[in-house]
Amino acid sequence: MATRRSWAEPWKIKMVEPLRMTTRAEREAAIAEAGFNTFLLPSRLVYIDLLTDSGTSAMSDRQWAGLMLGDEAYAGSDNFYHLEAMVRKYYGYKHLIPTHQGRGAEHLLSTICIRPGQYVPGNMYFTTTKAHQERVGGKFVDVIIDEAHDSTSDHPFKGNCDLAKLEKLIERVGANNIAYLSLEGTVNMAGGQPCSLANIRETCALCHRYGIKVFLDATRAVENAYFIKLREPGQAGKTIAQILREICDCTDGCTMSAKKDSLVNIGGFLAVNDDKIAEAARNLCVLFEGLHTYGGLAGRDMEAMAVGIEESVQYDHMHARIGQVEYLGRKLIEGGVPIVRPIGGHGVFIDAGKFLPHLPRDRFPAQALAAALYVDSGVRAMERGAVSAGRDKETGAHLFPKLELVRLTIPRRVYTQAHMDVTAESVIELFQHHRKIAGLRFTYEPEFLRFFQARFEPVGGQSILND
Ligand code: PM9
User: Fold this and answer.
1) Mean pLDDT over each residue of the chain, to the nearest integer
2) Is 126 a catalytic residue?
3) What is the DSSP string of 92-148?
4) Residue to mutate, 260, 270, 301, ligand 1, most ligand atoms under 8 Å from C-beta
5) Overall pTM surpassing 0.85 (yes/no)
6) CA neighbor of 427 nearest in space, from 349, 312, 344, 337
7) pLDDT at position 153, please?
8) Averaged over 116-131, what is the pLDDT?
9) Residue 45 in 3-state DSSP?
10) CA distances from 101 to 243, 244, 266, 309, 456 (A)
11) What is the CB < 6 Å shell around ligand 1?
């Protein structure tokens, strides 16, 4: 047999879910009804759903079979012990507290470990993570390297922490005033960009020297491990599972949204090594999530997660998953579309500022582009710019992060390359006619995580996409 030149997904399709095609008129009415916010669209009116990779992946036949093994006991379900064994094996932490999803774990960790007024450095903010830190009086400080804020930089590890920024903060405020370091594996808001193993080691060593704990946001840490294997000198010979353990072993615990890497539709966990933090988390879990052996999940959910964790570290799976993201990214680059470089792990991030240079920041170009893309082709994307960033807690002014992005997020094992082609064609065509896209202004702004429920109207007309 000739040498294999190309690769394909390591699965075949057993069941399909029909998609509904809509007309342009239907989509125009739907986006207006949704206040030009793609979060408020009914999914039955979406053709290709690239809103998020969170809880949208396809489970395997083994995971579906696992659902039938759900032990729905209130306490001490078999599936909890299976999940605990998988978390210990692949993530390596001593204590597991399941939660209904990632922000459940963030809620527990922030409440237990942050005193009002303390600082929480991190490699770029994430929306729910920062919201929970602030809710309990913490102050997030960004210590990611500068390259992460530059969509054109080709740095292979744009998720890295800047050790000088971190040390400066420690010296300025004192280690006692730092709750912990929040370290995200593949940084979502930077465009799905990984950290190097060397940087993770150095960052953790620096924190530990000052007695500061490091908690990993492990939501996409397996994708980070894959990038380390691919890009970091000396790491190619290791398995993804080995690298994942090396990342986790540097840290003191993690919060996890299992809806991403772990291939489940719902679920998450907090995992820590410290006995006292674990005890406090089990106590709070009972108040907010459910008993500490189910944390808001059914036994079957925990089983699907246990199986998903094992599947997530398989090389062929990760190669195909990130390969598909890269396929879409390359098409857009060929079409001249400005996207975040290098192409990320869980999605392709369009630089909306460069895509729509005629729109000022306070006309929310990324929000406008996501709405226009839906009108053009029924592809649903997500804004990741000023609307997501929210307002400054003290001044109340809009925060305008350097990156004003639209995320085309790829669910795992769900769409084919043909769906990627349709998406790319629509984005490229919009880019060629970008002046037709109007800016937006708020008509409703909720207090927390405004991007989920905010409503807008086009400035200067009824339509977001003017022909
Ligand atoms: N991320 C995403 O679409 C889902 C909703 S927020 C728009 O990217 C990280 C790095 C995440 C994340 C969710 C959470 C919260 C924590 N950390 O959604 O609560 O990307 O399970 O996880 C979303 P949950």
Assistant:
1) 97
2) yes
3) --SEEEEESSHHHHHHHHHHHH--TT-EEEESS--HHHHHHHHHTT-EEEE-B-GGG
4) 260
5) yes
6) 337
7) 98
8) 97
9) helix
10) 24, 21, 6, 15, 29
11) 52, 54, 101-103, 126-129, 184, 188, 217, 219, 257, 259, 268
Q: Which amino acid is at 76?
A: G
Whether residue 393 has pLDDT greater than 90: no
Kindly report the CATH class assigned to 61-312.
Answer: alpha beta
Mean pLDDT calculated for residue range 128-154: 97
Q: Name the 3-class secondary structure at 441.
A: strand
Give mean pLDDT, residues 358-367.
97
What is the SS3 assignment for 185? coil
Q: Decide if 384 is catalytic.
A: yes
Separation in Å, CA 45 to CA 154, 325, 351, 372: 37, 24, 26, 15
Token couple for 49:
């759903």
Strand pairing report for 347-351 and 405-409 = antiparallel
Looking at residues 142-157, what average pLDDT do you find? 98
Q: Using CA positions, which residue lies closest to atom 23 of ligand 1?
A: 54
User: Which runs of consecutive H residues, i.e. helices, occur in 251-364?
Assistant: 275-288, 299-312, 315-334, 352-355
Roughly what angle, to the nearest 10 degrees, separates helices 365-377 and 417-432?
120
Hey, what are 440's tokens?
């937006």
CATH 3.90.1150.10 residue window(s) in the chain: 24-53+315-458
- Return the DSSP state at 453: T
Q: Identify the CATH homologous superfamily for domain 24-53+315-458.
A: Aspartate Aminotransferase, domain 1 (3.90.1150.10)
The DSSP string of 248-281 is: HHHSSEEEEETTSTT--SS-EEEEES-HHHHHHH
Residue nearest ligand 1's atom 14 by CA? 102
Mean pLDDT of 380-386: 97
Contact predicate 417/324, CB 8 Å:
yes
Query: Which of 57, 123, 128, 260 should be mutated for ligand 1, with most atoms under 8 A from CB?
Result: 128
In contact, 350 and 437? CB cutoff 8 Å: no
C-alpha distances out from residue 111 to 115, 138, 285, 287, Å: 8, 10, 11, 12
Instruction: Considering the chain, tell me which residue range(s) the CATH 3.40.640.10 domain(s) occupy.
Output: 61-312
